[in-house]
Amino acid sequence: MNEVCILDRWEGDTAVIEVTDEADQIRWQQVPRQQLPDAREGDVLLFDGQHWKVDETATALRRQKIARRLACLKGRHPDSGNE
């Protein structure tokens, strides 16, 4: 099964991860901070069955996509025509 895992927030020493499956069903998972030492909110995460790691490429693409959407909403993007 192909799932997308995103670090939603930190609650003390616990990471709250949003997990979305192929059917767009969302579930929440909690993971101790020590299992995600270098992760920050908004990071795309990979889990190999034993270890979590940040998917640097997917995270960068996600952040770019969000920045473009925000710019468009603020009317600063060339594709933000008034329809």
TrEMBL record:
Lineage: superkingdom: Bacteria
The family database entries (Pfam families) matched by this protein are listed as:
DUF3006
Q: Which InterPro entries match?
A: DUF3006 (IPR021377)
Name assigned to this protein: DUF3006 family protein
Source species = Allofournierella massiliensis
Q: What is the lineage of its organism?
A: Bacteria, Bacillati, Bacillota, Clostridia, Eubacteriales
